[in-house]
Amino acid sequence: MKANSPNPIGAIEKACRVLKAMSDGRNVRLVDIADYCGLDRSTTMRVLDILIREGMVSRDADSRHYRLGAEIVRIANGVEEEIDWRAIARPSLLRLSGEFADTSLMSVLSGLEMVCVDLQIGEYPVRANFQALGSRRTLGVGSSGLAVLAAMRDAEREAVLAQIAPRVTHYPTLTDTFLRGAIARVQDKGYAVLIDAVVHRMGGIAAAIRSPGGEVIAAVAISALSERILEREPELAAAVKKEAAAIEVALADARTRL
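The chain above was modelled as a monomer; its predicted structure follows.
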């Protein structure tokens, strides 16, 4: 290998970061993708150009927006999931949105992020439109991530808090002091509530989900107008905790059938 050859591991990591960024439909501009990945724009452009050549990314000639390409779809279709998260979560989400008329969602832990794997829109006219299937959020940015942080072992949580600190700087409310205080409240109550911290006048309430082995792996949540969360907090908390327990049972049953 030549001395000035690029580090292949570094190049692969950058490509993975870009693809993860683009799984969130809000990251369509070069500047958004670069900011999400923590890369400069020229580096991000080079990575995108390679991914375009490989069919994993496409670029609209008029808007100059980037999208995941057809090759990603073909790869995804070839993946056999051990657990069908949507099948497991859907009954709980239908019950939550049916009872409370707001958006309910299931998010799974992936590295330092929570990934929305299913959601159900309620009948209430003001909806949490910032949530979408496949969207990613850094841990702590949202009630689901807060619930998962609080359920982690102490050593793991400390390591995660150190790593997410640079990622949450554009959310002024989410300081280290704020997150630690919020985590303590979650541990005391058994559920997470986050109000007006990410999106103005919107909030969420969530409960963590553990694997049959006891590891925290996901969360179920309701997202709604802040006042709708606060007015019904006891009822919402009881409901998300009940559905988190139901999902844990369904997950254990699914594991035994594998």
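The radius of gyration is 19 Å.
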